[in-house]
Request: fold
Amino acid sequence: MHPTRKQILTTIAERPTSGPDLAAELEISRAAVWNHVEGLREDGFEIESQSDGYTLAGIPDYGGPALEYGLDAPLEIEYHDEIDSTNERARTLADDGHSDVVVVADRQTGGRGRLDREWASPSGGIWLSLLSRPDIPPASAPLYTLVAAVAAARAARDAGVDATIKWPNDVRVGDRKLAGILTEMEGEADRISWLVVGIGLNANVDPEDLPGDQPATSLQSEVGAVDRRAVAQTLLEEFWTLSTVDAEEIMAAWRELASTLGQRVRVETPRETVVGEAVDIKAPGTLVVETEDGLREITAGDCDHLRPAE
Ligand code: BT5
Reply:
């Protein structure tokens, strides 16, 4: 959002302010103030003008300006009502040299999971991709999947939903999937060039509209319709804050929310199946499993929590 527009909103949210006062405060012309106010109204902000000046009477439910307004993270939002995949769009932006942009969509027509699985993305969900260029080696990229999982789980918990994390990338309520993460990157041997972290969180979505091949849930079906803007902003702020701390702090935050640790698990890796008890997570996201043949460290795979009897 244009910084002047941000300032206008912040000012008139606090107290009614006249056009001339805004012009003087922001050192712009009255005509420019009027133009910005009209622009903000077009973006869906309800701005009343009364004898004592402009006041902010309402903010749009969702969309780019709504998400940028009051967001406590230095991220630019690119919003689409509909797009094939926010991860695809973020990759194009990466190729064009952009960074610190979040692509957000109300619905995706070609949402993707890992291994090219489909990700159902009906209207009402939070579908977004964060593009950044952290100065890290490619091997450290899985850390950002953990950061995203913690951020999504915290945002869900903030909305009153008892979300936990299943290694490596599922946020669930009980055994029902609430959110998934798809991290993609491009890089050289020692340094990544860009990183795209895609997060899909079923917010105001009817689970009937989600695929039935594995149990799924949404914030709406757990606690009723939520303020999608507030949830998405919390998610972005948590992501931003956590992505600036060191790996051990990220591990600690993940352990606190993980349902996988202490469970008997079966992990399908690209090469083999490992069964045992998940005992710990190590940076950058390696699961440590105690098997009959000793401790195994697994960097990638699909994980099932087994019932104790198995
Ligand atoms: C994931 O894959 O969980 C990663 C999902 C990432 C989606 C985000 S949305 C924004 C961004 N743009 C994209 O195009 N993608 C990212 P995976 O672990 O492979 O899980 C995929 C499986 O989850 C599917 O095979 C279904 O069984 C199930 N599934 C599909 N859509 C779902 C949904 N909306 N909610 C819960 N489960 C779903």
